[in-house]
Amino acid sequence: MSLATALFITFIVVVSIQAIYYTVFLYAFSGKPAQTKFKKHIPLTVIICAKNEAKNLKNNLPAILEQDYSNFEVVLVNDGSSDKTLKVMKTFEASHSNIKIVDVKTIETFWGNKKYALTLGIKASSNDFLVFTDADCKPATNKWLAHISSKFSNEKAIVLGYGAYAKKKRSFLNALIRFETVITALQYFSYAQLGVPYMGVGRNMAYRKELFFNNNGFNSHMALKSGDDDLFINQVAKSKNTEICYEKDAFTISEPKTSFKDWILQKRRHVSTAKFYKTKHKVLLALFYISQLLFWIISITLLFLAFKTQWVVVLIIFRFVIQLLCFGFTAKKLDAMNLLVLAPFLELFLVSTQLSIFITNLISTPKHWK
To answer: Which residues cross the membrane (predicted)?
Structure first.
């Protein structure tokens, strides 16, 4: 058997794997309509952990305080900031009775560890139902908390939301960031729907305080500087206790990174936690990514070799039709339809970047969350 033939057979397998993944994603999430049944306003605590976020708190905290929700408090955690973050928090506290401040002093043992600061914020909360977001996030509407709370029930103790990034015109980096965010959401929403939830994003998620302490909080991975969101969800989420919330009124919106260097560093922190996921999740995620990478490598190689070109082109088109169908439905739900035309190019760049990040992280791992 020639090398080209072996590559072609491998390519058929790779395309088949990709088609299965995207078909399953399409069935599990992309094709499902959003449904919300508002319930009585249960007591909520919104927790925001901030480190040197004075400007973002000024801009975004009002949208949280103005939520159309009758029963909620806001716990602001100042994680050893060196700017005016604490002063801004106290200014808001003076005019809002539902704000509580936790001022975390820097100590050597937990220096640079967001999980320690978050744990103190959770302990200070008055309510059992906790909603998490970041200082650089703003709810898309004043119905954010109403949507999130509607997903809780006697069984559902975790709610996974969607943290979008603001759109910037004529910016390839912005398109890439939003594309990666949609693809990530497609996966964690789909896996949750299929009964194997594996992560959430700290920009928009919620869970019960009781669940946190019954599972010893972040203790099993406290030594890791990142993973306060995805590693905890990977640890405690199950098919019966997890719900998803992806209505557009329930989005949070963040300002994206404006330089490739900052974005790469952010992605390096996120990727560094994936190796601590449960084995079944690592296998599923690795198979998807490896099949993506091989699709591009082998398809380009076979086209260069001009080996069975017609069949290769048919397989490429087949894979892209399924992928773009799945991505299109997802992008429509997540308000990112303008990315559809660029999707193939963005995917190629993203897969290449993820490979370089993986290799870089083997050499050194990011140390701090800020």
So the answer is: 6-29, 283-305, 311-331, 338-363
